[in-house]
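Problem 12. The chain below contains 212 residues. Write out its predicted structure in token notation.
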Amino acid sequence: MKILNLYAGIGGNRKAWGDDHEITSIENNEEIATIYQKYFPNDTMIVTDAHQYLLEHIREYDFIWSSPPCPTHSKLKIPNVFNKHGKSEIVYPDMKLYQELIILKHFSKKETKWVMENVNPYYSYLIKPQVILGRHVFWTNFYIRKKQFLNEEKEVINISGNEERYGFSVKEEVIKSVKKRTIIRNLVNPEISEYLFKQAMIGNKPLFNFNF
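Solution.
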């Protein structure tokens, strides 16, 4: 099966997929892409803009996972909208999230399964997600059975705790472009990814459709 992994990070969601598939991962940060490749040397890693890559290659894959940047959507943005110096940090939400949802819905192959992952937003959903699992929000074109996962939003997010839990480490890496805490914070829980991947593989056709 051909899989497209967009905004790959260091591969939290990828960990659950095994090595029996042809996986292409897209990450625009070269330092992060290098770490990903250490964990998944058999994957094809392309350092480029995931948003544009999806537009140009959407019909080439059987399963697509997209995890676009979440900071401008996060409900944690509201209490932190002003920094300690009182300067405004208000920014527009990045609407690439919804652009990709529309493109996936209308232009992916009929048999392609897809997942869009993000965080709980501070605003009302413009397109309601199918399910919330842990601290992650998911839109998919297939049915997901409800399952309880640890509520990660109540955890203290730290490098050592999540590195041990998820099986990744950046402690020994030299990273100049982004904080190590941010890299670990952005990991998708591999247990949730594994659950979604298995749900996607049930049956031959998508079982869920959004009306948009």
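Discussion. The chain has one domain: 2-201. Students who got a different answer should revisit the alignment rule from Section 12.3.
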